[in-house]
Batch of 2 targets.
Target 1
Amino acid sequence: MAASQPKNRRALVWAVVGAAIIVGAIIAIIASGLFADSTAPAPTQSPSTTADPSIHPSAEPAGATVDPSVTDNGWIPEPITTDRDTYTRAALAAASTFDTQLSSRNDWLSYLDTWFTPDTRYVSQADRDDDMAASQLELRQAVVLPESEWDSLANEDGRVAASVPGRIDYTDVPDDESSDMSIATADVLLTFTRSDGVGNDASYDETVRVSVQVLCGDESVPTPNSDQQAGDCKVVRYFSGTLEH
């Protein structure tokens, strides 16, 4: 891909993809009412002795991870793997798994930044860096729980544990000559848990459709000071809505 013409061509491609994302996002918001307290289903009471899903997230990957200790913060460890399916399930879960009592929202987002690698369709390093920064900004502004909702959940000692129990649909990435990137779409199960302040927890489930672009190829950039290597899977971009193909 040339440095200028492909960049224009990619802008056109993502304009089309973006339109699909917006439509999907509207449908998803209407259908699920994700993160809207007023439309959340009635909680079901559970004993206060119920295991804490934030300490041992249900989507915690087996095998080697970049930093297994992040479970202490209520986060999903990033797998060290070249297996696309294993990595994708963890990546989709990580973008919705947190504990407001174990970490701040900013710390959680900074941690998710370490999962990212540049889009290899850009030739220059500057373009790659700019695109990755834009993808990380999109994660903050359009994908994860908004700050106001985080604060509301934190007032009730809240947490969310996410997992991908079912099928993942994969599609090719436009203009990816390496064929190392994929767009993955799946139903993500979110379990919200809130406390009434006197030791009783209330939990309820939500299912949302989410997409993520993953690179499993030689040009992936490992997390610094980790056992990851070039070629291990990494996140390129999270999408704010569902991509239908």
Target 2
Amino acid sequence: MATDAGDPTPDPIPRFPDGFLWGVSTSAHQIEGAAGERERSVWDEFTAEPGRVKDGSTAAVACDHYHRHREDVALLAGLGVDAYRFSVSWPRVNSPSGLDFYDRLVDDLYAAGVRPVPTLFHWDLPASLDWLQRDTAARFADYVAVVAERLGDRVTKWITLNEPAEHTLLGHAIGAHAPGGELLFDALPVAHHQLLAHGLAVRALRAAGASDIGIANSHGPTWPASADPADTEAAGFYDLLLNRLFAEPVLLGRYPDGMGELMPGDVAADLKVIAEPVDWYGINYYAPTLVGAPQGTATEFGGLTMPAELPFSVREIEGRPVTDFGWPIVPEGLTELLRGFRDTYGDRLPPIVITENGCSYEGLDDQDRIAYLDAHIRALHTALESGVDVRGYFVWSLLDNFEWAEGYARRFGLVHMDYATLQRTPKASYHWFRDLLRAQR
């Protein structure tokens, strides 16, 4: 059972600057369902294999957003957000009428006064493709050009990729996510090809006349388990692998600490593409990670089993409340992370947008979620006051949804989903966030 995150501070949340972008996020595979025309994705293949998803479920129906998107747009309008971050399904766009759905969605968002912010890849790769192959990056750029041509007259803010670090680690290194690869460090080409795809997508979007382009990378502080050199070395390697490996090619045009020598192809030429300037840098933040030297056995972390062969072990952060997912609640870690990015990357760091932040809790009267969001938004304001250029904040997520390998067991939504009836019911956190946005204005 989760421990309580603490009561929200009674004082009003400090005011953010005019023009600060408030929004919520979702992704296609987690909410749309398989209705309409679309190709099969790696997640369709993965969830069809027994034992891959903890509750045995699939996203065949999910929230049926494909048929009920107008109901969800009305929820967005009632919430009062400035923007809605959704993802475009590459497998859907590969079908003859796949873009028609996103055409309707974008039009309905504009009619409701909500800015559309599409993510062009959120893990649902067409099943016919493989990130181990370099050609997938080129195919991605072609797909991005098609989407930009159709939606670019109305979409004015774009995200290329979501969390390539997790897609590499979970999907290709340890097999916890689709496509289920267990390659460990032989999965590094997946990281490189996704980063190359990002750079090619930026070029394709610019060629289509698009601007205001970013990427959504996941980041969190890495804390050594102790001052022991073995722990600090292991923590440094974890930070390299999950943070720096995905930030520095985009922001600095280079791989850290010789990692480029492990990547395929003409890496020097590829880095020039990967480092195409972005207009802003998206960060998904959930928690710090406590890391120590390997312990010689597999370890459990956030519902995942980390193999014993890894050169680090992930430890529990003790003395902290946790969410229903078992993730530690450390709002000041967001301030620490953002200040660290400012200090490390200086003028190479564009404005930051928090593209995901949220938590899993049960119940309609979700006071724990309110406390979590309250604390993290205050931590974000502290970072802003200390000189970090932060331009927006998106809550994960609008709806309870298909939570990947966890199935429907985890609820991140501001809106409760009854998966039997597909009824949507706003939670207490929905009303709290609505009131916060009204107060900010």
